[in-house]
Amino acid sequence: MKFATSEIDAIPLHVIDKSDLEDWCKGQEPAVRTWIESAGFTAEIGRVLVVPDADGRPRMALAGFGDTGSRARGRFALAAAARALPAGSYRIEGGLPAGDPETECLGWLLAAYAFDRYRTQTGAAAQLVCPEGVDARKVETIAAAEALTRDLINTPASDLGPDALEDACRDLAEAFGAQITVTTGDDLLERNFPMIHAVGRAATEAPRLIDLRWGDAGPTLTLVGKGVCFDTGGLNLKPGSSMGLMKKDMGGAATVLGLARMIMGLGLRVRLRVLIPAVENSVAGNAFRPGDILTSRKGLTVEINNTDAEGRLVLADALSLATEEPSDLVISMATLTGAARVAVGPDLAPFYTDDDGVAQALGEAASAVSDPVWRMPFWEPYEKMLEPGIADLDNAPSGGFAGSITAALFLRRFTAGARYIHFDIFGWQPEPAPARPKGGVGMGARALLEALPKLLGA
């Protein structure tokens, strides 16, 4: 997932807007025009054509860029061409008709991704020479971070439980000189992380809280990612149809690790902290039960009305820790609720914030880098839905209404008034699309990276 290292022998690639095809063809030699007309090339997104020279070798290649309407319906138009072109090295001639070259080039690199741990698979074989004006280091760094996120989400729980997730964090820390500490098993009780312990204690691999720190200058940024490596639902056992994708329930952790890799790889001036409560929500004789009341790190008591609403419990203890020291911005990311999927579907990353400036900066950044997000409300009138009476909070309010909002309100109770953003992501691409094969996918991380200078005033 890197750019081609040399322009030597690179095939000229003309990226053509559908509306410009006729005029472009008029400027070509008759043999080229005839070849294009005979092939029926229409410049639709994903359509490519290799034009040979007199000896049959590639003289140039054409890549369709569609039109404004077709591009608005998708993302990464250039990546669609990358998948369709034959293996080789290509250099873009004349630039792109529209769009952001950096984002389109990132899409090309991401098109090369394939999860091949268990089966031989390949992504796009066509390589791209980095165009002039595009920051190759930045694009390659983002692509590598996205690949990390995807690999983690795609790996099944048989090979990615809390132990392996900790190993991935340690590998990342070692690669970038970060500090890491891990609190595991019964030490969670001694150090006052009771809800992380309660959710994960029934699993074979011990629950833990992973704490990574990097950077010694600049504003402080704390990322908190839900690391539920598999979610059976606990004693409120999920049906099989709902359990099949639960390897991705650590998608929040995978996404914040990808974002952290971007930040560290680009050397941003920031003091970064990453907190990941890593657990498996399993079933055993010591599993936490419906009706139990847990006392959180913050001291708030929580009535358990559904053991399948466990992600907010482990995040609550981690968020309490995150806000015990000053931070300019706290961000949580989690595959938290099915309600968010019903509300916005699999392609949008819904987020919550009380800060209109944060929301505007995120929206603008998301549009700029084709990483769509959607603001959701911390709706104050729903706070009463969280209060069951027997305890301070209810982890699963009855009624079925506003599930994503009430989950976000629950988490906000543990942030001590910090400047806070919560993402309720899906972390999964249900159908293949340009630059995004079916499987695990990062959501919101690139938008956050783009917005960080405004969010942190850096």
From TrEMBL:
The keyword Ribosomal protein does not apply. It comes from the Bacteria. PROSITE patterns: CYTOSOL_AP (PS00631). Keywords: Aminopeptidase, Hydrolase, Manganese, Protease. One of its GO terms (biological process) is proteolysis. Residues 306-313 form the Cytosol aminopeptidase domain. GO terms for cellular component: cytoplasm. GO terms for molecular function: manganese ion binding; metalloaminopeptidase activity. Belongs to the peptidase M17 family. This is Leucyl aminopeptidase. It comes from Salinihabitans flavidus. The lineage of its organism: Bacteria, Pseudomonadati, Pseudomonadota, Alphaproteobacteria, Rhodobacterales.
